[in-house]
Specification:
Layout: E1 4-8, H1 16-30, E2 37-42, H2 47-50, E3 54-55, H3 72-78
Parallel strand pairs: 1-2, 2-3
GO biological process, one term: gluconeogenesis
Catalytic activity: D-glyceraldehyde 3-phosphate = dihydroxyacetone phosphate
Subcellular location: Cytoplasm
């Protein structure tokens, strides 16, 4: 099993433009990295824009009245 490095952006950046720039910088910086998987976990609002390969968090319920939460099923649907 190869090591995994996960980059969790927390509550940064604050704009889509900044998020795209940061995503592309990270992607370019790790393109030659061998035998290590790099996972970018951006804030939820940028997942579909960046096609990031991880989410920062999700709620354990599949669906329901949980204001502000993101379910695993929602993340799966994003791809």
């Amino acid at each position: 099993m190869k090591p995994i490095i996960v980059a969790n952006w927390k509550c940064n950046p604050t704009t889509q433009q900044e998020a795209k720039r940061l995503f592309n910088l990270v992607k370019k910086g790790v393109k030659d990295v061998k035998n290590i998987e790099v996972v970018i976990c951006s804030p939820f609002v940028y997942l579909s824009v960046l096609k990031a390969n991880g989410a920062q968090d999700c709620f354990w319920e599949g669906k329901g009245a949980f204001t502000g939460e993101i379910s695993p099923l929602m993340l799966k649907d994003l791809g």
